[in-house]
């Protein structure tokens, strides 16, 4: 994979993660009276760490994070967060799991492509991408647990 393609793909993650940060921030406010609101706030902070590490990687490759990610993704995330919240907590959690699964699928594909090509600029890119993948997987599992508990009427406000 050439450097231009790698930067393009990293910029996709940069935009996706920026979107997720804003999405979860909005959801944390929309569901502030539920435990899920605290979960969304914490997940937003973890997603922000992904934004930061992907941006640093793009910069280390001599490029700048995409303006699309800087400007459009936060707006989309805020809008999507508000719209999804209107569907109720259970549906919001289901939709969040779909977003996380998309991120996992894309991280997995990039990792596989880097490994298949014997490429790992800086020596730790695959490790960083795997860490992000694990976080996305944990978010998915957590959202699923919250959704299941909600369906069983076990989650109450704190």
From TrEMBL:
Pfam families, A to Z: COQ7
UniProt name for this protein: Bacterioferritin
Organism: Desulfitobacterium hafniense (strain DSM 10664 / DCB-2)
């Amino acid at each position: 994979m050439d450097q231009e393609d790698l930067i393009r793909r990293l910029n996709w993650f940069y935009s996706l993660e920026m979107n997720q940060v804003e999405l979860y921030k909005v959801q944390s406010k929309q569901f502030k009276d539920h435990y899920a609101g605290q979960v969304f706030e914490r997940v937003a902070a973890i997603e922000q760490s992904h934004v930061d590490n992907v941006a640093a990687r793009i910069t280390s490759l001599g490029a700048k994070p995409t303006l699309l990610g800087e400007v459009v993704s936060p707006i989309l995330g805020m809008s999507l967060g508000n719209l999804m919240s209107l569907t109720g907590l259970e549906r919001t959690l289901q939709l969040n799991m779909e977003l996380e699964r998309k991120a996992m699928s894309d991280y997995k594909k990039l990792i596989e492509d880097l490994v298949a090509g014997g490429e790992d600029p800086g020596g730790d890119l695959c490790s960083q991408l795997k860490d992000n993948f694990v976080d996305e997987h944990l978010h998915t599992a957590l959202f699923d647990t919250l959704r299941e508990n909600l369906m069983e009427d076990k989650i109450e406000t704190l």
